[in-house]
What does this fold into?
Amino acid sequence: MAHNFVFEEEKLPTKYNFKVWKKIFKYTLANWPFLIILTLSMLVTTFYDSSFLPLMNAAAIESIPNIPSNNIANLIIEVNLIFNISFKVNFYQYALLFFMAIVIRAITIFITFYTTN
It folds into this structure.
């Protein structure tokens, strides 16, 4: 017995249904505080993923040749973020900053999922 497992795609309309979008925007505007919270949390997550994390990693990698032979805690890491924000931190401060950023990112991801569900 041969089975015919042909996948047929559903025909979708080619025109935009503006009535549906009108309903979506009415719902969105009725819940505008959630929209603001959602937008802010997505911006924080986007900044973390696209700028903060890569620049922090780059700063740590660039400081590897300067590791003191006796103690990594004495390592000074020069971090250069966007908008010419730069600062120097030692290894423990770097680790604390990285940990705090991970916690903030986790909170913003939770907020994003909470507000969308």
Observations:
- The first helix runs from residue 18 to 30.
